[in-house]
Amino acid sequence: MPTNKKELRVHYKNLRKALSSDEIEEKSLAVANNLLQLPIWNKTYYHVFLPIEEQKEINTEYILHLLSGKDKEIVVSKSDFETRGMSHFLLTDNTKIKKNEYNIPEPVNGLPVASEMIEVVFVPLLAFDLLGNRVGYGKGFYDKFLAECKPETIKIGLSFFEGESQIEDVFELDIKLDYCVTPEKTYSF
Question: Per the database entry, which stretches of residues form a coiled coil (predicted)?
């Protein structure tokens, strides 16, 4: 079994590639339903990633429906590949979303939101372990963003697959998740 980040990335990208569109929808809905059990719904600002369909990421549309149904402020980001930083914007009815060169759907413009304002972050990932460590695509966008958030910001990984027992090459600066939610269960760290 793969245990380091590089091997895990390859392994989970392949597992994802094997998922059909129906499976992605079904599992994404199950993840959203499991999120309802978490004690996170008393906050105001929720950061959600918009899925890269080509990477077969979790469809966060179901989460967007939950948040708008609960009248929450939804925040989406735009990535800067030079600085590896992210800028955040309020998602409103007027927000125009456009895919960037990496097929990441991003807001074209909008009302900026500071990282310190964000209270809950739904974090994309490829793999995670039972200690709350995650493996992303390796570009460091989320590590940098999560470091800008307040320490009490709730970080929730979303995964189609269950956790690994341990990821070997974790750095001290890697920011751990508070929860990870899969279609089957919810992990709390």
Answer: none
